[in-house]
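Hey L., structure's done. Input below.
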Amino acid sequence: MLIKNATIFDNDFHIQEWDLRVSDGKISALAAWGELEANQGEEVLDLKGMTLAPGMLDIHIHGAVGMDTMDGTEDSLEAISRFLASKGVTSFLPTTMTMGFEDIAQVFKLKPTLTGANMLGFHMEGPFINVTRKGAQNERYVRTATLAEMARYGEDANVRIITLAPETEGALDFIREMSRKTVISIGHTDATYDEAKAAIAAGAPSVTHCFNAMPMLQHRAPGVIGAAVQSGIYGELICDGLHIHPATVYANYKMFGPERMILISDSLRAAGLGDGTYEFGGQTIHVVNDVARVEDGAIAGGVSNVWNNMRNCTKWGIPVADALRMGSLTPAALIGADDSKGSLAVGKDADFVVTNEQLDVLDVYIGGKKFR
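Output:
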């Protein structure tokens, strides 16, 4: 397939007037307008006036359209995958909850073939968290991080991220060992600045949903955020306008920069359905005016998506190029997928969104095939 006359965000997120060729699901050529000639029988798309942007990666998403990762079924992951693709998200990490071993193990056994967004593995959020910062996690299942539990899940569990509280018993030893195999992210934590720094030194390169379920950033107690910024590690942020004030989003962008700030949705099964009452990790969640809360009033996950959150960022003073990077290449880099995902470059997967000046999702291509 040859796409002609589009403007394209390149690997450095600069706008280029390029044509793009897709071969075998990969981007095989990029050249200035008019320099690529169509091969005999090749499909040609003229996208004059349109822009190609990389598909988003959501590395922290629990569910959507009535389905949840913890359902433990391929049908649920398929529904989530298709919902994400329709919203410009082309890759994702289904995210587990703080639940019992058997429930989590059932999820990790899934190896589905999906027709929407690519599944790149799993994000294990909990159960190795601090119960005082549980948020919407179920405290009944909170437990100590152990290598023995991880071994029970098996080598093929494909856990790409583990969120844990580094101040809990045995967590630092766990980080030192598990960080050789997967990304450790500091979250649902009551860690001090010094405890967070110790976790980073042990091998934790990221923070889970910055500001939520952790101590505040204060001038004499910088906490997890201060440690993360000073150390130059990654930080997720839920930019739905509800979890984090827009001014704080902008401040976080200035502190972390587009190469380290990661846009996530943290979305629940309520995403795409609207207000109502739902189940989440064995708990009841009420969504009112697009805000999800558990029974005790604590704010839960989101009901938005990364493309929409990226658009929000552009309305709050963040340049489009940086907002796109934070939803695509930056999360891909964190999980080591940036060799094939996250930007438009020769040799990478042909995962892209056809958009316009308003950043509407017009069409989505995954592996060079139009999502339908």
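Residues 74-86 form the longest helix (13 residues). Residues 148 and 270 are 34 Å apart (CA to CA).

-- N.
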